[in-house]
Amino acid sequence: SLIHDLQNVSLIYVLADDLHRKISIFTSIVCTFYSLWVAFVGLKFIAIYQNRKYDMEIGEVRSADEIKDEIY
Hints:
transmembrane helix; transmembrane; membrane; mainly alpha
């Protein structure tokens, strides 16, 4: 009976360990993809910001004559 109980306990530990392993693998995969997504979104925002800054700089460079020509 004692041996039987010990076998049950060890089986529970094995199942818990297996579940723990699955959870940790799942968590690491989710974290990896989340960090890749964050990096991708961050790079996209940086690109948008850089383009906007670049457009503004180009906008500031134009002379008054060019703007007048555009209006008339």
